[in-house]
Amino acid sequence: MGVKVDIVSGFLGAGKTTLIKKIIDDAFKREKVAIIENEFGEVSIDGEILKDRNIDIKEINSGCICCSLSGDFKDSIEDIIDEYNPDRIIVEPSGIAKLSDVLKGCKEIRIKDSITINHIFTVIDISNLDMYKEEFKEFYIDQVMNAKTIIFTRIDKCDDNEIEEAVEEIRKININASIVKVPLDIMDGLDILRIAEKDLNNIQEKKIVKLTSRSKKAAKAVRVGSKIFDSWGEETSKIFNINKIENIFTKIGITKECGNILRGKGFIELDSGRWIEFHYTPRQFQLKAAVKQDKGKIAIIGENIDKDKLELLFR
């Protein structure tokens, strides 16, 4: 039957890694799973988050997958199949990769008869949907248009009207995808896969909502220009005060003097001796406890980044 390839796409910080952890823990425990994780940036973070699953992770740090289709990405899949022989490969593209290019890369793999493109998820933080549409229209349209299943995250920050408006926006682009609009923390990974496979008979109605469009309008292809993203990152032995790290990202979000920062993530040690994992997206900053690391890691992604100013902020 060959190797199944699942793609978990979505914009920066939308919750792709959270979804992957859930479906691995709940649905793929008996399968041999490999992850190809594409880190855009100078310092890899998500590999640290996923490594405790005892799953092989091959990271590509040379840029987004859409820039690596002729080399690293296809080679990584071929190498994993040859060396590891998994039942399933999960591809987590960078949040600034075009889903259409990732799909194209999968289809061009030399051993394509041995793989089957299975689930195609796009994860959308609907609290930032307006920002996606206005500032990153090309990536937003591409990721929605090519998905088979759309997962809404951070719906707790939106009321029912805002959620339904988000559904209407998605349906203007993709009339066929299943939409999951229930918080991931109350969803079982098996239920998510059943929605993706449209096997609704095995799911409690109150737990999920599957929407089908009644609109007869077809999605229109939109041709837009490309944006250029940049990254800055470092490994550090510096110990931080929790107030300082919060103030850094408050300043990043308000002043824009370091550029248009779209994503920040990392692990740092606090002066209390604890380690924390941090995640920043526009309008949101989260901290949570982390296990001790060999070194702190900081990764920043955005447009027109001033790397010198970032280095001063984190000094």
TrEMBL record:
Residues 6-180 form the CobW/HypB/UreG nucleotide-binding domain. CDD domains: CobW-like. Pfam families: cobW, CobW_C. It comes from the Bacteria. InterPro entries: CobW-like_C, CobW/HypB/UreG_nucleotide-bd, P-loop_NTPase, Zinc-reg_GTPase_activator. GO terms for cellular component: cytoplasm. Signal peptide: none annotated. Residues 231-314 form the CobW C-terminal domain. This is Cobalamin synthesis protein. It comes from Clostridium bornimense. The gene is cobW.
